[in-house]
Amino acid sequence: MQDTVRWGILGAANFAREHMGPAIHAAKGAALTGIATSDPAKAAPFQAVAPDLKVYGDYDALLADPAIDAVYLPLPNHLHVEWTRKVLAAGKPVLCEKPIAMSAGEIDGLIAARDASGLLAAEAYMIVHHPQWQRARALYREGAIGELVLVDAVFSYDNSGDPGNIRNRPETGGGSLPDIGVYTIGSARFVTGEEPVEVAAAIRRENGVDVFSHVTADFPSFRYSSITSMRMHPRQVVAFHGREGVMTLTAPFNANVFGEARLELHRGGGAGASVTVERWPGVNQYVLQVEAFGRTLREGAAYPWTLEDAKGTQAVIDAALAAG
């Protein structure tokens, strides 16, 4: 692999335009080289970022071009498995938006395709690259809050005014759990390294997709509770509550967009109480994600979020949707 990874994007999704396209362009060792879209007008904002960007009229043309080293895939959820397989079959590593599949069983096939190709295939689970979450995991494993009792998380927004949004449509893999449950559930798994033994859920659905989900679970050493919703005022926070302290993460999923990424550690009580606050203003987790992907391609560095990790989160989502 050459020093600079030349990236192609399949589709001109809003998220790619606003976040991942600029991140690829800004990342060290990466170049935003091509985009595939049937509408040249949709490529214009990407060309404003990367003037030399090549526009392909269809996805297969981009995949066939040897000038593209790696592919970022931001297509609607229900197309992730199909096109992840196609990218691997074309001989290119792929970074696919979350959720990479609509069920845990589908990820088994992607793992097999990854292993057969010898290429990197990963879910774009960007938070594990952010120092806020790396610090949270380190503090937890150092025993900073003592024995963990409860993890509680909330991630909400309101897109009720946009019924055509892919998140509001069952045929495109919509729902709050597929869209943002990957964060509330996956982050607890990432920090603790544990898997739930029992999952329950209370779910409210509209048009066949979950718009409010309260998921509870028993992990081997702690209780878990989360709310995801597409019908509530925007909020996001995660707290790890132990016997000796509480670790709270603000703006844990959309750092800089929702607010400043902070980690507050509360310990002790009374006169011995202490609060420490760590902040990461301006850190771009999407840039860090692209750079980590490139290091794996160039140097063989371990990638921090594997398909097996993604499968573990999806299995919890599957259980929650079945229970609710």
Uncertain residue segments:
none
- Count of discrete domains: 2
Shape: globular
> What percent of residues are in strands?
25-35%
Main structural class: alpha/beta
Task: Give a description of the structure.
By secondary structure, the chain is α/β, with parallel strands linked by helices. It folds into 2 domains: 5-124, Rossmann fold (3-Layer(aba) Sandwich); 127-283, Dihydrodipicolinate Reductase, domain 2, CATH 3.30.360. 35% of the residues lie in helices and 29% in strands. The chain has helices at 14-26, 40-49, 59-64, 80-89, 104-117, 131-141, 176-192, 285-299, 307-323; strands spanning 5-10, 30-36, 54-56, 70-73, 94-96, 121-123, 148-158, 198-206, 209-218, 223-229, 231-242, 245-250, 262-267, 274-279. The strands form 2 sheets. An 8-stranded mixed sheet has the order 8-9-10-7-11-12-13-14, covered by helices on one side. It has a 6-stranded parallel sheet with strand order 3-2-1-4-5-6, sandwiched between helices. Helix 4 packs parallel to helix 5, helix 5 (104-117) packs antiparallel against helix 9 and helix 6 crosses helix 7 (176-192). It starts with a strand and ends with a helix. The mean pLDDT is 97.
